[in-house]
Specification:
mainly alpha
């Protein structure tokens, strides 16, 4: 192989390396974008689940409060008085 052929070969290899480096950089950027998109979607799902849990806890607390009121009223009725209508 002559010196000119080696010079051309080195030039071609350097160009190929630059193209491969550019391709690698683009693929890394795509992976980063995909990971960020997946992370954002997961964060949104977690936030939605947290809102749902908060709503369920609120409904559970309301149900427990109503249950207490009902048991108090039932206990008052069992004692022979109507808790909804004070004596008088």
């Amino acid at each position: 192989m002559t010196k000119d052929e080696l010079t051309r070969l080195v030039g071609r290899l350097e160009r190929r390396v630059r193209r491969l480096e550019a391709t690698l950089a683009e693929e890394r950027a795509q992976v980063t974008r995909r990971v960020n998109a997946v992370r954002t979607a997961a964060d949104r799902k977690v936030a939605a689940m947290m809102r749902e849990l908060a709503a369920l806890r609120h409904h559970e607390a309301r149900a427990q409060a109503l249950e207490r009121l009902l048991s108090e009223r039932t206990a008052g009725d069992a004692d022979g008085r109507d808790a909804s209508h004070p004596a008088g």
